[in-house]
Write a structure and sequence with these properties.
The complex is a heterodimer. Chain A is mainly alpha-helical. Chain A has 9 helices and no strands. By secondary structure, chain B is mostly helical. The longest helix of chain B is centred in the middle third of the chain and has 22 residues. Classes of the chains: A mainly alpha, B mainly alpha.
């Protein structure tokens, strides 16, 4: 149990992700998390107004069950499998983040400055959560997939479009962290 | 029965996302700062195994658990949608520190503010659907 309660090293986590993709392929489904966001739009009635959401969302119910599982998995991992949730990021990352004002760096799982309950009443952190989430949803559908669909499934199938998308993910991420973070925080 | 299989796979996925720390905003920041191997190791290991797996399934015509042939859909050929969409996604990934899978996981882990991120992601998806025909693909 000791092994499970520690953070999982990359050489355990990576193969676990491959195993999850393998299981989904073997039950004739595919590994893609962002398509659920489109399904949720359809369930909320977006199909009446827009063709893009007018599809048989019930055929995607299986993936929503995977999402439900991911929620339960997060609950189990956080409550029963992780006695100490501090993420031990590198020293240099901690000092970079402290310079930006993140005192929680190295001490918590998520920065409390952004994700703490009190941050929800702060206009700036709320705006960051909304803009971040919006870009993830918009960008994932525009690119036709996210980390699971492109970086893992698509690249595993040697798809050039997925490589372009992953290069895009990194351009966006690097611009955000290196150029925009100093302006935002 | 099938529903239970999907649920079990999802639970395994959620636990993996949380325990691997791929769901941690800090790890995503650290990755884009190139200050640790951790995230590259995770994605790299998953990818190497994924490539071998996909190749083997095609090469040896491995059947699914239900004894059917397995098809891999090719992604539609295009450039701009992948690059522009990818960049926008990357901006959001670094800012919110979570991609769609970890978002759901973090809601389960009890982060109420992650519900805001998920709702915003649904809204982003909806706005894309509205603007789809006006955007370069």
């Amino acid at each position: 149990m000791d092994f499970i309660s520690q953070p999982w090293p990359w050489y355990v986590s990576g193969p676990m992700i491959a195993l999850i993709m393998f299981l989904l392929i073997m039950v004739e489904k595919r590994f893609g998390m962002s398509s659920n966001l489109r399904t949720m739009c359809s369930i909320l009635g977006a199909g009446n107004k827009n063709e893009f959401f007018n599809f048989d969302w019930k055929s995607q119910r299986w993936n929503l069950v995977v999402v439900l599982g991911a929620v339960i998995g997060g609950f189990i991992a956080s409550n029963f499998l992780t006695p100490n949730e501090a993420v031990l990021i590198s020293e240099s990352t901690v000092s970079n983040l402290q310079e930006l004002g993140f005192e929680s760096a190295g001490k918590t799982y998520l920065p409390t400055e952004l994700f703490g309950v009190s941050a929800l009443s702060d206009f700036k952190s709320l705006a960051i959560l909304i803009i971040g989430g919006f870009l993830v949803g918009f960008g994932a559908r525009y690119a036709g997939g996210c980390t699971s669909g492109h970086a893992i499934s698509g690249l595993s199938n040697l798809q050039l479009p997925s490589l372009i998308a992953v290069v895009g993910f990194f351009i966006g991420g690097l611009v955000m962290v290196h150029f925009l973070f100093p302006l935002i925080f | 029965m099938k529903t239970l299989i999907y649920l079990a796979i999802g639970i395994l996925f959620g636990i993996t996302m949380f325990k691997s720390e791929a769901a941690s905003w800090f790890r995503i920041y650290e990755m884009f700062q190139f200050q640790a191997f951790h995230m590259y190791g995770i994605i790299g290991a998953a990818l190497i195994l994924g490539v071998l797996m996909t190749y083997s399934i095609k090469r040896f015509k491995i059947k699914s658990f239900y004894k059917n042939n397995i098809h891999f859909e090719a992604k539609e050929k295009s450039f701009y949608r992948y690059l522009i969409g990818g960049i926008l996604f990357g901006l959001g990934w670094a800012l919110a520190g979570a991609c769609p899978g970890p978002m759901y996981t973090l809601v389960g882990a009890g982060y109420v503010s992650m519900v805001v991120v998920v709702l915003a992601a649904i809204l982003g998806t909806y706005v894309y659907g509205i603007l789809k025909d006006k955007l370069p693909h």
